[in-house]
Amino acid sequence: MSDSSIDMNAAMAGVPAAGVGDFVALLKPRVMSLVVFTAFAGLVVAPGGLHPVLAAIAILCVAVGAGAAGAINMWYDRDIDALMSRTRERPIPAGRMDPAEALAFGVVLGIGSVVVMALAVNLAAAALLALSILFYVFVYTVWLKRRTPQNIVIGGAAGAFPPMIGWAAVTGDVSFASVALFAIIFMWTPPHFWALALFRSGEYAKAGVPMLPVVSGAAETRRQILLYAVALAPLGLAPWALGIAGPLYAAGAAVLGLAFVAGALVLWREPSEIAAKRLFGFSIVYLFLLFALLIVDHAPQAVS
User: Fold this and answer.
1) Is the four-CA dihedral 268, 272, 276, 279 of positive or negative sign?
2) What digits encode the pLDDT tens for the residues 22-67?
3) What does the domain layout of the chain look like in residue ranges?
4) Model pTM score
5) Rounded to whole angstroms, how far apart are CA atoms 190 and 286?
């Protein structure tokens, strides 16, 4: 049977014919890239070593697990995704994929990633990966997102687990240093997403999502962004203070932290969409560069 016949039969049956690109979109690849990068940083800076094949499997499991959580999130949020310009072209609200197919895809990938991590790497990393997936799906997506403006504050923990998972893949445990890496992402998440919410508040209000600008207003959101940025700046130095990073990292983290505070201060004093977009963009660069510095700072030790 030809491909055109299959597509025609699917259309006649009322079932969307999803393509490969639609399944890739379900995985939220842009979000996944930061997840994978921070997990890799945790793996690199952890004491000890891991066979390159096992390290690759661990990172792949983190990527697949993050994608699985994203797919389930898209399945659950398909109704509000259809109301927002930023998300209405996702596979499910756009009508290119059956919701049940997306849910099954996410569940299979989620279970598979945890099982492979447990069998190939260790139980500690697998448990943290499972916790991350479950937290994102049930705590953030199902429980918090539509109920409270603290959705990002609490729910952001799900995206903070990857460096702990990478660390546990090497060491088989959780340490104070890996918790510090978790804390950096946890504290970074609210100002990052609130900057986005400031210039998307109309869409969140239309979809009934109680993001902070919708519930408390733009002025309070800008104030909270500044407070979190001020708290994040010294926290970024924690890896150096704990001895898992050197002076190169410390200098870079200090500059990045001050730049984040400066951007938040500009947004606080200049309530404009442009300032919010600039801070949102810089927040992504901040996290990437901070964890890149961790990797670069640790590279000589890895070589030796």
Assistant:
1) negative
2) 999 999 998 899 999 999 999 999 998 899 999 999 999 999 999 9
3) 18-174, 175-304
4) 0.91
5) 14
